[in-house]
Amino acid sequence: MSELPDFSDLRALYVNCTLKRSPERSNTQGLMDASIALMREHGVHVDVLRFVDLDVATGVYPDMREHGWASDAWPEEVWPLVEAADILVIGGPIWLGDNSSVTKRLIERLYAMSGERNERGQYVYYGKVGGAIITGNEDGLKHCAMDVLFSLQHIGVAIPPGADAGWVGEAGPGPSYLDPGSGGPENEFTNRNTTFLSYNLLHLARLLKDAGGFPLGGNSIAEWEDGQRSGFEPNPYGANPEYR
Predict the structure, then answer these.
(1) Residues 73, 55: contact at Cβ < 8 Å?
(2) What is the DSSP letter of 2?
(3) pTM, full prediction
């Protein structure tokens, strides 16, 4: 293998959006574990969450306890790990050709924080990189990955080349990734894409970390609000702070 830089100061967060609560076996976790092993092999600190196990409220605000929910694990249990991560990988299953409801709820909560800012005055996700890992035994892998990756880049996460990997068996009922005889763990296409996903996440995270974050220039919400409009005239009616 070509000489690689030191990745040991990077942090990664893998969020599994399976519908299955622990300790039930998750096929998505099986494929995520292959990527996680590559990360840990290079000294990356990896945190793993199974989102359905956590008491995370539904909504699009940073703390849903301020909006009628009795409890919300997001502010104390989830967000600190997201905020600390250089790499964010969302994994989940395919249901009816689409992402799971748990995946969608995670993306909604990520969106809830998208108005926050980093220390440079940019949106808070600038400087992070993201990827998607999808499993199922029906069609929809690319659609699900497209949905996750678009959502991540929209809120400010950088997406490297080849930022998705997945496995689907034959269309219709059939073995899942970890089932005996499925061929999933041995699949050349899946293993190649999982490897490229993992290393491209590492490479882009390394570049951004060494650069001190995503370059600052023409992309600072703080500067925009201070009147630096890059040639655009200010809106005479003012900005809607809820629109991101």
Answers:
(1) yes
(2) -
(3) 0.92
Say whether 88 sits in a helix, a strand or coil: strand
What's the rounded Cα separation, in Å, for the pair 37 and 31? 10
- pLDDT band at residue 2 under the 50/70/90 scheme: confident
Query: Is the confidence at residue 237, as pLDDT, over 70?
Result: no
Q: β-strand 45-50 against 129-136: which pairing, if any? A: unpaired
Give 146's pLDDT tier (boundaries 50, 70, 90): very high
The answer to whether the CB of 65 falls within 8 A of the CB of 73 is no
For residues 2 and 110, give the distance between their C-alpha atoms in angstroms, rounded to a whole number. 35
Q: Which helix (H) or strand (E) holds 135?
A: strand 129-136
Which are the contacts of 241, defined by CB distance < 8 A and separation ≥ 6?
115
The single-letter DSSP state of residue 235 is P
Give the pLDDT confidence of 14-24 residue by residue, as tens digits. 999 999 999 99
- Contact in structure between 4 and 15 (CB atoms under 8 Å): no
Q: How far apart are CA 57 and CA 79, in angstroms?
A: 13
